Please model this.
Amino acid sequence: MISLRQRLKQSSNQTNSKLPAGPNDSQFLQTLWIILKPMNYLERIEKRYGDIFYSPPFAGIPAQIIISNPQAIQTLFTADPKLFNSGEGNKIIQPLVGSNSLILLDGERHLQQRKLLMPPFHGERMRTYGQVISETTENVITKLKLGQKFIARPLMQEISLTVILRTIFGLEEGERYQKIKKLLSGMLDIFNFPLSAVFLFFKFLQRDLGPFSPWGRFLRQRQQLDELLYQEIRERRNQPDSQGEDILSLLLLARDENGQPMTDEELRDELMTMLFAGHETTATALAWALYWIHYLPEVREKLLSELNSIDINNAEPMEIAKLPYLNAVCSETLRIYPIAFFTLARILQEPMEFMGYQLPKGMILSGCIYLTHHRPDIYPQPKRFKPERFLERQFSPYEYLPFGGGNRRCLGAAFAMFEMKLVLATILSHYSLELLEKRPLLPVRRGLTFTPAGGVRLRVKEVI
Model:
């Protein structure tokens, strides 16, 4: 963080400066840093240039302004959405989710689609989802035996994927269920290693060189998954009597202001968005939570004490979700190492004065979640895992933003937190676990997100 004297000097000259200062590293070096060592790179740049800095173009990604100043983030999130195009700024994920994904839409179409997608993630339906989450977690973890060693992330991935297939598609065990599960896991595993993420960053690498090439394998698996999704959509359209409580059923019934339903293509892309956004991210957050709970004995003891204060086995999901220390543990997990380091990018549609800088049309603004969450003026000792900070004060949506913000805040934020709490409560009430690696774990890139190195290795110490 730059000193107060530097900040005051910089502030006095801002009105004469068109753009914030920033690094002038070569594109190649910048790309390597941001892919392999993103935390080190971001912290080094912020220390030198402050909490609003210019990031030159790299890896086909245009120049942008990176912000971790809460006042600037508030300005960004509360500005007229018509000032920005966000879909165009997030084309990097188009191969994963499709061009009709809510993330890639702008203007009136984005607003309409967001209205259609909001109802399933709120209200009474969450109670039904809570039962699915608890049942799924119990079914998956009963495979664990006394003394068994396991890696948390893939186990959490199995839970989160099963939850999604049941809550989004209403799918139970069966041939299509198994095929979708296998294909989605396979697609994600293609980008399992930090260097494999270059295929998402570099457009020229996205070439089909046959079924054994990384991109060729991805395209073939995506095509197979598409066929299964379209089959499910067509069958459900033709059998309206089979509609259930799942999200696909609700979306099939949804109508826009003109009374029109979503097309098959729109449904497919929104389903893919939920599969990718709600599966991998939640599994990673759960793996991190299990790491911190067992890395810090005092956190585990406080959490177990709170869970023991109610009858977990007979408690309503909503009662569990309201436990304050459980909420604090989940919140701190998403603070210290957020799954995504940046908010969705926003592209200026006209020149704008922003925090004293004159920004031209076409400039991209991105909030840096990681740097904001590590500001010592908001979070003292930011490198320390301390759930109590979420009991001691309430943070504004411009200081704490693991799900982004403004009109681009993740629609599934409440669902994700709900799932985290219920999965953790279910696991801890059935098993006493032991962390096998008593060392600090750091995030490593997995596609566009960041996951704990090694996946968190645990052992079943006791079956409760």
